[in-house]
Amino acid sequence: MSQDPPASASLPVVETFHSLQGEGLHAGRSAFFIRLAGCSVGCSWCDTKHSWPAESHPARTLHSIATEAAAAASDGAAFVVITGGEPLHHNLDALAQTLRKICGLPLHLETSGVDPLSGNPDWITLSPKRHAPPRAELLSRCHELKVVVHEPADLLFAEVLSAQAPQAAWLLQPGWESVEGQQLALDAARRDGRWRLSLQSHKWLGVR
Question: Is residue 145 within 8 Å of residue 169, measured between CB atoms?
Fold first, then answer.
């Protein structure tokens, strides 16, 4: 039996909040979000660049994070989303263990897939990047493959990766405010029924 993490165990956290999942197959569902700090992937279009430097954000104990998640569960949250930054820059085993013990909600992970998998999440959203391809382990275990589209090369990248993730749902998500990406994703989803269009509904609605 694994031992509980020490009470002082902590991770750098950008923010935690209870809202609706805005993207992917679980869009529209009540969720508690844990945004961990730190990312070296460096996407030019990233909308959370403030999360990149881990040292700029306070460390929070795993117990305090899980206790807040439990309160969100009592207020209707259906699952916990661990995101970033790039959450797998951190070993998530202790965080997942603490969340399961105190909160009890399913754990969803949003990752680019550049680091080894940890935390044994119940749902993996893999959002790979052309300039930093994902590990094979993440491709073979993800539940949804969500590729952000800005230009034709992104569609070629999506096709290559989808062949390595036959078990996953395949989603094309236009880059925010990318007119070309929107048209490319629309046309590709219309041409090939294996792909779904994913929109950032929280941005359209103006909610967190």
Answer: yes
